[in-house]
């Protein structure tokens, strides 16, 4: 039976990547040992690391005045790292709150400096969950940066329009990076935990404009210091080498798939397939304003919540894994990251139809 894993993260990785990793697990490129047993300072690993960075730069068309950092600590590590690196005394940072993760980010930032919180969550007239358009965010032009989360993994809300501002935009792209092309030059910092669209957990990507690097010898914990990471090619301390290797395989795979324009087409089609069926059905519903529906994370509810457990159990029996919704939202959630093929979404819709027929 083919299984499809709809987990929000750690998430499904491309089968071809997993197979390659399996093949070279014990003996990587004739080295006589696994890639995870190599020194991060060995020539062969440094080559691998540089190649992965180059492939990422190609995929995202990252301009030369941006550093790419391979760090530790996940998305939450960056919730601390961002204010520690960018929020200098006497300055204020703007935090846009559009859901659970951006709320967690502002709570963390408050420990380190002055923040202004903008809760942009709102409901439409039809009581759908929505947000204030970026053109109406009240950003103070003297702010150190404006932090936002373009795709809220838990809530299932995504926005692509950025505000017109000279203030550096810092974006938590943990659950949307590499799902479509973006204009890097519009951002000051982009960060993402790897465990959704990049590779396994343990690795965190940071893309930072050079002029935003902190001052030398700033009082920042060394492993969160962007300047130290940049000056040491992300090898100030031992990086998560195996995750870096796997991310490199994923970047190659993305290039083979036609890059991010091709991924965007596929991701849009997958999301449309699922939302269309949900909207047509009386048995299921999604409560997000269509203008902000996420391509990556689709929360939905059954008309009868008492059927939730049997839905999840029967889906698992059909090889459709990890559909239980986040505890804060309830219901179901299907995460459709890059590695999820269209067939996985079709299989889910087909199961949902059968389940509705029997239980509706
Ligand atoms: N930001 C977003 C948007 C996320 O989805 C997550 C994790 N699901 C995090 C931050 C936290 O990431 P981590 O668990 O890697 O700290």
Automatic annotation (TrEMBL):
Documented EC number(s): 2.6.1.52
Keywords annotated in UniProt: Amino-acid biosynthesis, Aminotransferase, Cytoplasm, Pyridoxal phosphate, Pyridoxine biosynthesis, Serine biosynthesis, Transferase
Catalytic activity field: O-phospho-L-serine + 2-oxoglutarate = 3-phosphooxypyruvate + L-glutamate; 4-(phosphooxy)-L-threonine + 2-oxoglutarate = (R)-3-hydroxy-2-oxo-4-phosphooxybutanoate + L-glutamate
Gene Ontology MF term list: O-phospho-L-serine:2-oxoglutarate aminotransferase activity
Cofactor comment text: Binds 1 pyridoxal phosphate per subunit.
Pathway: Cofactor biosynthesis; pyridoxine 5'-phosphate biosynthesis; pyridoxine 5'-phosphate from D-erythrose 4-phosphate: step 3/5; Amino-acid biosynthesis; L-serine biosynthesis; L-serine from 3-phospho-D-glycerate: step 2/3
Keyword Cytoplasm applies: yes
Signal sequence interval, chain numbering: none
Sites of N6-(pyridoxal phosphate)lysine modification: 196
Main subcellular localisation: cytoplasm
Class in the EC hierarchy, top level: transferase
Ligand binding (L-glutamate): 41
Top-level taxon of origin: Bacteria
Record-listed pyridoxal 5'-phosphate binding positions: 75-76, 101, 153, 172, 195, 237-238
Gene3D superfamilies named among the record's database cross-references: Aspartate Aminotransferase, domain 1 (3.90.1150.10), Type I PLP-dependent aspartate aminotransferase-like (Major domain) (3.40.640.10)
NCBIfam families named among the record's database cross-references: PRK05355.1, serC_1
Protein known as: Phosphoserine aminotransferase
Species of provenance: Alishewanella maricola
Name of the gene: serC
